[in-house]
From TrEMBL:
InterPro entries in the cross-refs: Ald_Fedxn_OxRdtase_dom3
One function term, GO molecular function aspect: iron-sulfur cluster binding
Tree of life domain: Bacteria
Protein name, UniProt field: Aldehyde ferredoxin oxidoreductase
Length: 50
């Protein structure tokens, strides 16, 4: 494994943070449901086209 345990722990923590905040940890974009909850239809349309 080329990564140290600290890097792997950081990756897990970062993914957990994104998930907790309502963002996709893979794409790093806010989820559509999060944008709906925040009443940001223009941002949702720009990111997702809906």
């Amino acid at each position: 494994n080329a990564y140290s345990p600290n890097v792997l722990m950081w990756d897990d923590a970062k993914a957990a943070y994104f998930t907790a905040m309502g963002w996709d940890p893979t794409t790093t974009k806010p989820l559509e449901a999060t944008l709906d909850k925040l009443n940001l239809p223009t941002v949702k349309h720009q990111l997702y086209g809906n």
